[in-house]
Structure formats: C-alpha cells, structure tokens
Amino acid sequence: MTGFWRRSKADSEEEKRAITEVLGRGGAKPEPQAKWSPGVFDDIEWRRFEALCEALFAQAGVRTESQSHGADGGIDIWLYSANSPKPMIVQCKHWRSKPVGVQQMREFFGVLKAHDLQYGTFATSSTCTSDALEFARSNGINAQDRAGLLQLISRRTADQQASLLKVAYDGEFWRPTCVKCGVKMVERQPKDGGVPFWGCANFAKLRCMNRMQMAGKR
C-alpha cells in the first residue's frame, strides 16, 4: 500500500462532476457563504477541502503535517498528539454526491496496517454507505462525512468557525488544483478544436501532462 497512490476511477468521476458544476456557472467564482452550511463543501475544490480538514484538526490541539500535491501513499494529513506515541492519519475525499463505499474504507485500512497504525480518520464532503460505516466502526476508522464535519465545526467557537470559513474560501477556491504540481489549472483550447479542458499551468515549464476533461462544455 505504500509508495505511489493512484487516483481512483471514482476520484476522476468526481473531478469531472465538479468541473461540470463550475462550467454550469460559466466558470465564474461562486459567492462565498456567509456562514457554515453544506453549500461550502460544494463551492470549494479538493485542495481547499484538505486544507480545511487540516485546520479543523489543528484546532483540536494536535500538530499536523500535509503536502499540497504529488503521491501521498493514501495519507493526506498526519496528526501528532503529545498524548499518543504514534501519529494518526487522515484521508480526505472531496466528493460532492458519490457516497464513499466499503472499498475506499478497506483501502484506507490497508494504509493503516502498512504503517502499523491502529486508528485513522476518513473525512469526506459527501456521505458514506452503511457497509462502509460498519467496516469503519469495526476497524478503528473514524468516519466523518459531510454532516459529521459540520457538527464538529458547529462545536468550535464563533471565531474558530470564521477562521475555518476563511481557509475554505482562500484564493481561487473554486478552480481545480493540479494533483501533480499543486498549482491552479487553466482552461485550454485544443489546437484542432474540440472540447476545452483544464490543463496544468506548468506544462510549458515542467512538461506536466496532467489534464482534466471539461465534461459538459458547450
């Protein structure tokens, strides 16, 4: 389970769905929510969701470590507590509608075992299927879906909630981030015409070939 962690077909499908929603707005920046609601998760892209989760856990008093892009071995955030000899790990899935299934939980459990860890958190902006939740409960996985994350946020002080909202809406929060380079992707038009796509801004410099199809573009 260690080493290069490939983005799954389900991840790619969710990316395309997210792109379609952005294009449905004409590529325009959505108006930030004034307070916490499920709509916040729909407004932001995957990197903002991971940064939000990291900030949320940091508010609980643990030290966090993460990386902005590249192969992560199935671990998005490391959590270190003075009260525990071993770290905890977090995997984040920024999915808008597709529920996290038992397959994703099993894969995360494999990552836990590969690092000789007993506990971890699986955070998603979507929901989890009943069998995924049952597997999580039986295997030391703290499953936090959209409702669970909103509940955790609601327990924070007003200032902390405002701080988390600022993290969510930081920068170009709606524009996809390249999973390989960690930079914002740009809209590109194929030379021979056809459907435009999101392409990595580092193509000219680093020859990053990462691209995402703009499903539903007219």
Could you please describe the fold and organization of this structure?
There is one protein chain. α3 packs antiparallel against α7 (158-168) and α4 runs parallel beside α5. 29% of the residues are buried. The chain has helices at 9-24, 38-43, 46-58, 102-114, 130-138, 146-154, 158-168, 203-206; strands at residues 63-66, 77-80, 88-93, 120-124, 141-144, 185-188, 197-200, 211-213. The model is unreliable at 1-7, 22-26 and 209-218 (pLDDT under 50). The protein has eight helices and eight strands; from the N terminus they run αααβββαβαβααββαβ. 37% of the residues lie in helices and 16% in strands. By secondary structure, the protein is α/β, with parallel strands linked by helices. The strands form two sheets. A five-stranded mixed beta sheet has the order 1-2-3-4-5. A three-stranded antiparallel beta sheet has the order 6-7-8, covered by helices on one side. It starts with 8 loop residues before the first helix and ends in a 5-residue tail after the last strand. β2 and β3 (88-93) form a beta hairpin.
Strand order of the largest sheet: 1-2-3-4-5
Number of helices: 8
Class by alpha and beta content: alpha/beta
What is the rounded Rg? Answer: 18 Å
What distance lies between the first and last C-alpha atoms, to the nearest angstrom? 40 Å
Task: Give the integer mean of the pLDDT values.
Answer: 82
What is the element string, with H for helices and E for strands? Answer: HHHEEEHEHEHHEEHE
Helicity level: 25-40%
**Strand coverage percent:** 15-25%
- Biggest sheet overview: 5 strands, mixed
Low-confidence stretches: 1-7, 22-26, 209-218
Shape: globular
Per DSSP E runs of 2 or more residues, the count of β-strands stands at: 8
